[in-house]
Every structure is written in C-alpha cells, then in structure tokens.
Amino acid sequence: MGAETSSTHMIFFIVATALAVVVSALLSTQVYDIANTVRDRGASLGDNIATDIAIINDPGQVPNNPVIIYVKNTGQRTIDHTTISVIIDGVHRTHTVTLLGGAAAWQHGDVAEFSITLTLASGDHRVRVVTANGIEDDLRFRI
Amino acid sequence: MGFSVTSSTVVLAVAAFTMGGALASAFLTSYDKVSEAYREDWDFRRDQARTNITITSVSWNNGQKQLTFNIKNTGATVLDPNQLEFVIDGRWKTNKVTSLTIGGVSTTVWAPGETLVAVVQDTTWTSQPSRREIVTENGIATWG
Predict the structure, then answer these.
(1) For the segment B111-143, what is each residue's pLDDT rounded down to a tens digit?
(2) Which stretches within chain A are classed as H helix?
(3) Are residues B94 and A31, on separate chains, in Cβ contact within 8 Å?
(4) pTM of structure
(5) Which domain holds residue B99?
(6) How close is the nearest chain A Cα to the Cα of B120, in Å?
(7) Looking at the structure, do residues B122 and B80 belong to the same domain, yes or no?
C-alpha cells in the first residue's frame, strides 16, 4: 500500500511538472513573439516620427521635360532614396534619382534629384513625394 | 500531491517571471525609441518655427557670372550656412557656391541678426538669373 501510494504520487509529480513545462513553453513562444513585435513596432514608429522631407523646388520655375524635383532630407534618419514614390497630378511616375553634392547616402541635409521623363502642359500642377514609410511632402507649382 | 502542486507552481512562476521580464524589456525599448524620436521631432519643429532668413540684397557681376547675396538671419535660431540650398532659375546650384562668410570669416554658426554673404558662380549663366530661392537646413525657403 505504501509503495503504491508513493508510485502514484511520483506519477502525479511527473505529469504535473511535465504539464507545467509544456504550458510554460507554449506561453513563452507567444510572449516572445509579442515582445519582438512590440520592439519592431517601436523602432518603426520612432523612424516614422523622425523622418521628414521637403520639396525645395521653386514653384514658379520647375524644370520641365524632363521634370526635375529636388527633395531635401530634413529629418533625422537616413532615407533609402531608391524606394521613393513620385506622384505628379495624381499619377505615379517612374523616375531616376541622383543624390546631389556627391552624397553616398540620403542623410540629413542632403538633396536628392528626381528626374521624370515628362512634358507638363502650361498651367497648374501638383507633385507629391512619398517615402517607403509613408512620410510625404507635396508642392503645387505652375509651368 | 503536495510536491506535484509545488513543482508545477515553481515551473509556472519561473516562466511567468521570465516572460514578464521579456515583455517589460520590449516595452521599455520601444518606449525609449519612440520618446527619443518625439524629442528629435519636437526639437526640429521648434527650430523650424523659429527659423527665418531674408535676402537683403543681391548683386550681379556679369564678367564673373557671379551672384552675391546678403542674407540676414531674421529668425531666433542658429543656422549652419553650409546647410543652405540655392535654387536659381529653377535649378539646384548649391554646388556652384564659391564662398559663404559672415564678417569675412567662414563659419558653421550663423547667429540670429548676422548677415551671411554668399557667392554663387556659374559660367553657364548668360544673363542675371531672375528667380533666386534659398532654403535653410530645416526647409524654410525665401526668395529674392
């Protein structure tokens, strides 16, 4: 009777401990996923807040055919200039981009030149430049 | 039965502490990044709101194909002359700046009230450029 009781206790002990370990492992996986997501979201939100750009063209004299748009990185983060979208009069335009002044990366203070093979008609137009993380600037100008 | 409860409780408690620590660390890291970014953004917005420059005079030297600007810092923040952008007749000409001086001295500190003398020279100009835009490091533009 004593030996039976001990072995029953031993079985309960092993099963309970094993269950606790399995439950902890499952919960840990979920919690670490949540922690990583929180960390990633924080970094991403921080980057969004500290990113800023400004279109510095003279709205009375924007180069035409090709249209050239000058954009200055006025934020605190380096921006990937190859992932920028340029929208003129509501239409996404393909473009070539050059960092001016010999800059190797589009850092704070640097200017990027976006050249769009396009001839705009005389009149009023609007350009919008959007970064990969959704930061944008726009400019109304006249040709 | 007592040992079973104790052992499983210990395992779950250790796991809960570890998970709580991981979550707290993630939230703190995230909070740090966001608050630092807000601080930078706040500094930027404050400086931008206090920035103003005025072109007080422009002179043209046809022989040298050279524009000389007198630009006064009429705002309330210190600017860096080397961060100015010059857009002249619609084209970026910052790479044509030959001189940036305050009181005859080249400096990175352009204090409020001081006048910067900027010289831009481009031999491709055939006549005096008519539209001259200058943009500060934080995107404030002026024309003259």
Answers:
(1) 999 999 999 999 999 999 999 999 999 999 999
(2) 2-50
(3) no
(4) 0.84
(5) 53-143
(6) 15
(7) yes
